[in-house]
Each structure stands twice: as C-alpha cells, then as structure tokens.
Design goal:
The chain contains 14 helices and nine strands. With 321 residues, it is α+β, with helices and mostly antiparallel strands. The protein folds into two domains: 97 residues, Phosphorylase Kinase, domain 1, CATH 3.30.200.20; 207 residues, Aminoglycoside 3'-phosphotransferase, Chain: A, domain 2, CATH 3.90.1200. Strands 1-2-3-5-4 form a five-stranded antiparallel sheet, sandwiched between helices. Strands 6-9 form a two-stranded antiparallel ribbon. Strands 7-8 form a two-stranded antiparallel ribbon.
Length: 321
C-alpha cells in the first residue's frame, strides 16, 4: 500500500505527531503485511519509517501491529532494532512510526559475507537479551496454538502431505509435543527472523518487526531462520547450526524436537487456504516445510530405521526429555 492509500485521518494524525507534513515517500515492498511500509520524507528534512494496516483485507493484521507497539516501546535502547517513536489508531487502522534505518535487506540468494554478519548478530542479540528485559510469555505458551501441525494432521487426516511425512506421521505426532519444554530458556527472542525482517547497514545488523517476541532458548531465533536461509540459496541448516555456540551447547534432542514442531507447522500451514490479503504466504511456508522435513529426517534417521526398531530407536529416546 502507498502512503496515499491510508485514510486521510490516519495520515493527518501521523503528520500531527511528527510536527511536519510528508512531502515524499519511498514504499518498501516485501514481507507479508497487507498494508503500508514506507519511508516518509518530511518537509523539514527528516526521514522516518511508517507501517500501517487496516481491518481489511486481513482482520488479524491490526492485532499484530498492536502487539508490536507494546514490545517495540519497551525494548531496551541497546537492542539492534529500529527506535520506536509513536503509534496512531483510528477506525480500526493501526500505524507505527520508527526511525528510518539506512540499510538494505540481505541479498538473495544469500551471500556468504552477509550471512556471516547475520549469524554473528543473532549471537549478539541473544547475549544482549539474556536475561529477558521484558516480561513476555514463554515460547511454549506463545506458540502453543501454532506448533501442533503433526498432531492435527494425525487426528484429522493427512491428505496432501508428502510420502515421508505420511509414513512417519505417528512418530512425528508423538515427538512434536516435546518442543515446549525443549524451547524453554531465559532469552528474549525475536520469534520471526527472516531475510525480510533484517536490515544491513554499514555498521550493524538491525532486526525489524517484533510482534512475535517471547522468552525461550537462546538458539530459537537461529532455528527459526535456518529453513528460509536454505530455501533462499544459503547452506543447509545443519551446517549453519554447527557454527552456533548456543546450539552446540544445547541438548541435541531438544533441538530435534523443536525442528520437528517447526516442520509440522510449515507442513500443516502450507495446506491451508491463503489468508485474506496474503496470497504468497502458503507457498513460502511450503518451501520452508520441504527444507525442515529433510532436516528433521537427517537428524532423526527415520528413513533409515526399519519399522520394528522405531519405538526404541526413535520415539523412546525422547520420552525422558
């Protein structure tokens, strides 16, 4: 959406808070929000970044913006995130205004040097937000309604999934619930790190869009990022996972359990109809599901286990988690 597409009352309220009229805009395409994302050039020479969304076409989007308002306003200033200025609400529309970060999204396919910067920045981010500076729900609570894809497919029928998932659905559905305890921790995590939520400047890596932040294990953001990296031309997830000190120090079964839940989420979501106003989301989720399932099979060895050995060789292994 362009700046001119916002209701006049919303634009007027933003300009009033800024204390100057908007004389130019640069729309920032990409992402999955059916609303405004643009740099606003003000008459007095300042530049800010604004995002806004209304109740149509996706009625859930305004609530995500409201969640981000609460989180962005409370992030400590040292967080590598854009500085939040203010928000505006009018007639179901929600707008947020931030500092304008003079940076760019990572180049795709991923470049090795930019990927290395992002991985280092994720380590720094986890260290800076441990202990968590905000009182947010634990990951097990925040994502409880989302990470149950395998169990839902097992209960409701698995039409449309690939042969590997169909063959191992019972084992996957039994492993999946262990992700909640596995993901527990004392770090504030972004919860939605992808290339389109990252800006690279000459000096730093900035993480944008924080509505999904919660508290969990220090390696969560890395695991959430890796399927999209492989999908967008980067190295395989397991290769990058081994570069992370927090992941190497973690219980490997905990990481496998979370990958199982992530694979189930992407697999199940990709089979649903597109949400209103988000026509490309399911394809994006489906591509990440392909990566996550291969990654999970690599870690569990399910394809190599004969059926008779699975209860002791696979599922039983995770019962003590």
């Amino acid at each position: 959406m362009a700046w001119e597409g916002l209701p006049g009352e919303v634009r007027a309220a933003i300009e009033q808070r800024l204390g100057a009229p908007v004389v130019g805009t640069v729309t920032r395409p990409g992402g999955f929000s059916p609303g405004l994302a643009a740099t606003l050039e003000l008459e007095d020479g300042r530049r800010v970044f604004a995002k806004a969304v209304g109740p149509e076409p996706n009625p859930e989007s305004p609530e995500l913006h409201r969640q981000e308002i609460a989180i962005a306003a409370a992030l400590p200033p040292e967080t590598p995130a854009p500085r939040f200025f203010f928000s505006v609400e009018h007639d179901g529309w929600v707008a947020l205004v931030f500092e304008d970060v003079d940076g760019h999204e990572p180049q795709l396919p991923w470049r090795g040097d930019e990927l290395a910067r992002v991985l280092d920045a994720l380590t720094d981010l986890a260290e800076a937000l441990t202990p968590p500076p905000l009182d947010l729900p634990p990951a097990g609570e925040a994502y409880d309604e989302l990470l149950h894809g395998w169990r839902t497919l097992s209960a409701e029928g698995a039409s449309g999934i690939d042969p590997w998932a169909a063959e191992h659905l019972d084992e996957l559905a039994e492993l999946e619930p262990r992700w909640g305890d596995a993901a527990a921790g004392g770090t504030l995590v972004h919860g939605d790190v992808r290339a389109d939520n990252i800006l690279l400047t000459a000096e730093r890596v900035v993480f944008v869009d924080w509505p999904h932040a919660c508290v969990g294990a220090a390696w969560l953001d890395l695991l959430l990022l890796l399927p999209s990296v492989a999908m967008q031309g980067g190295p395989p997830p397991e290769e990058l996972l081994k570069r992370s000190a927090s992941a190497r120090a973690a219980n490997p079964d905990h990481i496998t359990a979370f990958i199982a839940a992530l694979a189930g989420y992407f697999t199940f979501q990709s089979l649903l109809p597109p949400p209103p106003g988000l026509p490309t989301l399911r394809r994006f989720q489906g591509a990440q599901g392909d990566i996550a399932r291969r990654w999970l099979d690599e870690r569990t060895g399910l394809s190599k286990l004969p059926p008779a050995s699975r209860p002791d060789g696979f599922v039983q292994r995770f019962r003590g988690m």
